[in-house]
């Protein structure tokens, strides 16, 4: 019953008009009332993510379910086929719950599908599974009992007092599941330099045959470096890496278009020329693109070009030539026809060799010339995505920059290079290439480090450098990104979810089960205003009582605990009911808060010498009755202080009574503060010892600061005096029932 009520509440909150059509279920526990049209027991489809991804290619599928090792597809949404059951092994998901696989432009280079390896990384936390929204229906616990010190600035508290109460939060947008990883960036990558720039005479190089044996200049003639015939001769030549080799550069001929000369650097420029019979000589001037006869030979110089990987091509007119060291290794010749397997002379760049090592990077995934991950959102990391192929080393080949298999032991280095490209967690493009370089120059060449294999060892070192430069170019970057596409995706750190809607972002990493009200339990799931997100659900920001969000510390209807209501007129302070004084002057009877009878003063405005005598007997005493004996033809005054509200007009009234005198006439007058006396008012003539009510006399209000008044909190203390005079014999007089009532208060 509780589960049924939960789903009913969810439907009401999401869309009161058409709840069944609007709500999306993600992981609802229950059973289906309809049959699936697709059932699979494949182990690869048993997870909610895998079953959901399979759904992505099936437009008929509106919902799916997993349980008991099966993946099921349904043609209807969950709302139309779901029946809750807490003991069911099935979890049902609407189509929207499946992980999103965004469509992106293809990466540089073409991806192959090599045989799977066995590195076995198959599980990625993409930020948690999206669940159906839950609106809490449980009251908040009572506040713990504590001692409270109530405010001392009563007026300030009353003026500023408010309390919090709002409706329960609702869900403005249901949102979508997190994206299951981003691919590597495809734009904004830096341009990569070629091994040699033929347009710059400063781009100098050594010339190597396809066997990587360098050419040297001996007696005005170029030839492959000779092999030493003894250990002593090898030692005399010095370390292979230190052998002095001639430098060359490309130069554009004055009349040439599309072809270059190769010039031997030195004090006197010398140009490499092809003879009509395929030989190679040095000459002192460029012939341009037209053959010339020099010293009885037909020669031509402007026939060379070079590709980005440093391989030299030769073309005279429409005829292609292969320029390479001959089979016996004694000379370099030109043979008609295009090179076989790109075996031709190559350039060994001095600038590439002199390049400084890169600084250590702050992130191995987002920096460098071939980052695996975009730099936004921050702190993405690469990992093997579920279902990716395994490690697939395939040795040395053209796809990795090798146009022909070298005659050296680079196979293990190439395999390691492949595996490094496949290593999403640690392998960077630059790092993999550097390791590859170290491997080739180390274990790949060390077996040749003997005097009798001096030339092969030197050639191996040159080949290692050349192939390293090859993989640091565009072909190598393309191979790196091909491996990355087949193996890696980029994920948020710390199990955060990757949220976003556009192929080019913006994306954000967020914890769906934390406090993000715009991604609460799902990407883009938005809570209503004045609510918070708690563990993936929209909740009240402070406390909850029934269907209201409250603060138990200040709400007078739920003070300290739900349904604890403060008495009328009381506020809630720190979870306890509190009766503060009013925040404005209370218009009560000014005499009701005056001093008792004995605190009235006598003669504040004077008395006649024979007039005022003493208080009467107890018959006349007691608050608020005042009585005196008045001597013949005398007068007397009495006074006290009354409370009046600033700016308020009052009505004054009292009772009069006299005894013991026949035919006696008395008068009374009064004054407030420093104002003038009122007009005389006569006592009633009856000598009957009964009270007679006076009329109500208007008393204009006082303001703060008026003369004779004193502030007393929100009220004013105002002096009040009464003047009484009589003619005739001595008699007794009584005044009682003083009332000072604010006008309009009755």
From TrEMBL:
Q: Which residue ranges have biased composition labelled Polar residues? A: 129-147
* Signal sequence segment: 1-19
Renumbered to this chain, region (Disordered) spans 108-147
Keyword Signal applies: yes
Keywords (A to Z) from UniProt: Signal
Biological process annotations from GO:
arachidonate secretion; phospholipid metabolic process
Return the protein name.
Uncharacterized protein
Origin species, per record, is Zasmidium cellare ATCC 36951
The taxonomic lineage of its organism, from the top, reads:
Eukaryota, Fungi, Dikarya, Ascomycota, Pezizomycotina
